[in-house]
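Work Package 3 (structural annotation) set out to generate three-dimensional models for the target panel prioritized at the project kickoff. During this period the team completed the workflow that converts sequence records into discrete structure tokens, so that structures can be stored uniformly alongside our sequence database. As a representative example, we reproduce one entry of 213 residues exactly as it appears in the project archive.
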Amino acid sequence: MPIYKTITVSPTTSVYIWKVEEPEQDLAVGIELTPHCQNRMDGMKSEDHRRAFLSIRHLLAEAGYVDHDLFYDDFGKPHLKDGNHISITHSHNFTGIIVSETDEVGIDIEMQRGKILRIAHKFTPIEEYKTLANTEALIRKLTIVWGAKESLYKIYAQQGLSFLRHIDVMDFTFEDTRTLAEILYKGKKSQYEVEFLEFEGFTCVYALKMMGG
């Protein structure tokens, strides 16, 4: 069963991406779920969701973990029992995790779709990107910005945080493959490094909280 991509972000931080192509029974082999996660999976009506759920357990195994090492807080944020940081994402037939021994991390995978043009004003000052050459470039750029904000939101995990008002992503070019972002919320500022990649019409963005930021 193929892992699609592994990225070594730093000596202490790695990203693992799975392309879900296997049938559910193949993905279930060798996976032992906690009662909580078995209940969650039993409640999933969509086979695609169950396959994605199981593929994430294979990604955990790539990182040296099993389902029992994972737990969720009241906000729904995943944690590892050994104190390392983790974030999880799922979009259509791709799933991904980022694991770090040293940094708070967030990850998001999004399909590049035209509908993002209609909602862009809700999460970013869209006039910033009006200079882009064509619609396709604008969709790609907005998807990166959305993914960056989603990744930061997963790290921050506080109710009331607004993508539009509280999270700012510095401008970037596609060639950069990285940028910086900050959250200013309730008088407190925190800063983040953001990296992104594109594949098969999808965008993966991951973020690391900067020390002291």
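The mean pLDDT is 93.
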